[in-house]
Amino acid sequence: MAAHPTTSDEARPPAESIHPVDEKLPALKMATSGLQHVAAMYAGVVAPPLIVGAAVGLSGTELTFLTGACLFTAGLATFLQTLGIWKIGARLPFVNGVTFAGVAPMTAIVASTKDKSDALPIIFGAVIVAGLLGFLAAPVFCKAIRFFPPVVTGSVITLIGVSLLPVSFGWAQGPNPAAHDYGSAKYLALAGITLVLVLLLRRFTQGFVKQIAVLIGLVAGTLIAIPFGVTDFGPVAEADVVGFPTPFHFGAPQFQIAAILSMCVVMVVSMTESTADMLALGEIVERPSDEKTIEAGLRADTLGSALSPLFNGFMCSAFAQNIGLVAMTRIRSRFVVAVGGGFLVLMGLCPMAASLIAVVPRPVLGGAGVVLFGSVAASGIQTLVRAGLDKDNNVLIVAVSLAVGIIPITAPDFYHAFPQTVRIVLDSGISTGCVVAVLLNLLFNHIGKGRDAEDVTHPMEGGQEIAESAHPAPAH
């Protein structure tokens, strides 16, 4: 009997029908591209455990453990987001890791905890509750995204960067604020050298080297610091080659209302950022993110966050810098990013690899942190540029939310008269700035008829309005 070629042709879809997002590349390209994603976000994912661990007063060995745990949980969260299960995961090339938004509130929790050994369990308990509530709220949140326009998200992202910059300045001055040489010329010089190296690499290199400029700067700065006697290789010598992030290594989670409220605010911020990232990435990979995709992506973020404390990790969110990498390389496969998640898991299971970051002197981290945290603030400013700041209502929203958000930075004792439990929320400029931005956006842009959308008067001009007849609305 004659064969029916159409049968086999119908069973095998043409190659061009596979969307680039779902494309599986050759093994070598998958591996190298996955490593590139890890390199682009590595410094960002280890910075939060370094900040929080230092605030708690962890030893070098414990700091290595916490860093490895965050790498491990970042890999698991990346699997959830890229590969997905059931209705969980956007199935886009997202890298997930510890969100910067939670750093300031977590350090505030540490500062308010008398017994520092309880600080991490309290944080873990708050993250678990916030993650579970976020998971349940995902279907509603994706519908309420109109209340989080660029004017809100841009303000929040800017505050994240601004709130973290003082951390890098503190690192630049040395490892111990009580030491006699804290802020000495040698520490500031190391920070300056590292900063210059990163900037030169970003300016005069291309491709992969340019993407890992921060990582190269950290390595070079550490080597330069050896003659200064400020590089300690002890954590590497003490670390095991193979290890596993023992569940609840720092103690069983504790649940305190104030800490939970603070982390719930962070969860809202994180979900807002992730939604904005999904919308942006959907356009880049030419698979626009609809409501269903955003809901599934938020479920992955929140479930990953809820599970993360089980392995001693923190709240997870999408990493915006990797979106830029996708746009630059045009490699849109989600499986490439899943391979990167695999590398993160392997690094988390190798304490010796994780301990390498603990070797990096604080001044070197400070120099790189200026670029890292400053880039977060710049990303927020880029978002604000698209927010329609020609409208004076939006200018006021940004102005007041940023002003309220930087109070804990410029006046740390501003809320000293408030109860300690309340200060956990108020001392986080990111949390307070986010709340103010959302409320002001509701007041100016949603409640009542409001002012005409085309009013372009400056808020310092006493409310004088420019007639539409003089300035007709531009055509769109």
TrEMBL record:
<feature type="transmembrane region" description="Helical">
    <location>
        <begin position="39"/>
        <end position="59"/>
    </location>
</feature>
<keyword id="KW-0812">Transmembrane</keyword>
<feature type="transmembrane region" description="Helical">
    <location>
        <begin position="250"/>
        <end position="269"/>
    </location>
</feature>
<protein>
    <submittedName>
        <fullName>Nucleobase:cation symporter-2 family protein</fullName>
    </submittedName>
</protein>
<feature type="transmembrane region" description="Helical">
    <location>
        <begin position="424"/>
        <end position="444"/>
    </location>
</feature>
<dbReference type="Pfam" id="PF00860">
    <property type="entry name" value="Xan_ur_permease"/>
</dbReference>
<dbReference type="InterPro" id="IPR017588">
    <property type="entry name" value="UacT-like"/>
</dbReference>
<keyword id="KW-0813">Transport</keyword>
<dbReference type="InterPro" id="IPR006042">
    <property type="entry name" value="Xan_ur_permease"/>
</dbReference>
<feature type="transmembrane region" description="Helical">
    <location>
        <begin position="119"/>
        <end position="141"/>
    </location>
</feature>
<keyword id="KW-0472">Membrane</keyword>
<feature type="transmembrane region" description="Helical">
    <location>
        <begin position="148"/>
        <end position="172"/>
    </location>
</feature>
<feature type="transmembrane region" description="Helical">
    <location>
        <begin position="335"/>
        <end position="358"/>
    </location>
</feature>
<feature type="transmembrane region" description="Helical">
    <location>
        <begin position="93"/>
        <end position="113"/>
    </location>
</feature>
<keyword id="KW-1003">Cell membrane</keyword>
<comment type="similarity">
    <text>Belongs to the nucleobase:cation symporter-2 (NCS2) (TC 2.A.40) family.</text>
</comment>
<feature type="transmembrane region" description="Helical">
    <location>
        <begin position="396"/>
        <end position="418"/>
    </location>
</feature>
<dbReference type="InterPro" id="IPR006043">
    <property type="entry name" value="NCS2"/>
</dbReference>
<feature type="transmembrane region" description="Helical">
    <location>
        <begin position="65"/>
        <end position="86"/>
    </location>
</feature>
<feature type="transmembrane region" description="Helical">
    <location>
        <begin position="364"/>
        <end position="384"/>
    </location>
</feature>
<feature type="transmembrane region" description="Helical">
    <location>
        <begin position="213"/>
        <end position="230"/>
    </location>
</feature>
<keyword id="KW-1133">Transmembrane helix</keyword>
<feature type="transmembrane region" description="Helical">
    <location>
        <begin position="184"/>
        <end position="201"/>
    </location>
</feature>
